[in-house]
């Protein structure tokens, strides 16, 4: 039977604490303290009139908070780096968590992550030569 209690517990335990959450990788707050900066995290392409606005939108997207399956909040750029660079399959660096980090945007298969990283490295070496 559906219950509002579980929803309220989730909102209190996870969402209410979000402004005080720190990214486990860079140790910075996951949300900006300035409301204008928070607004820019979710600006749409329609909101961007100038080239400067478009660049700001791209930079802001990297700082968007992303929640993983372990329940920790990361910056999008930090999580991307954590998931796509060795060591693969690492546990969450947040103190007290230590669970393996999963997110639907990245494959959970460690071998696939390793292959992608190796291919990226080979591509970079080719470009450097």
Give a description of the structure.
The chain starts with a helix and ends with a helix. The longest helix has 19 residues, at 110-128. The protein has one domain (4-128). 46% of the residues lie in helices and 5% in strands. The protein is mainly alpha-helical. It has a two-stranded antiparallel ribbon with strand order 1-2. It is built from five helices and two strands, in the order H-H-H-E-E-H-H.
End-to-end C-alpha gap: 62 Å
Helices and strands: which structural class?
mainly alpha
If you average the pLDDT, what whole number results? 89
Low-confidence stretches: none
User: Mind telling me the C-alpha Rg?
Assistant: 18 Å
Strand-residue proportion: under 5%
Overall geometry comes to globular
The helix fraction, in percent, is 40-55%
- What is the number of strand segments? 2
Oligomer: single chain
What is the helix/strand order?
HHHEEHH
User: How many domains, in number, for the residues?
Assistant: 1
Q: State the major sheet.
A: 2 strands, antiparallel
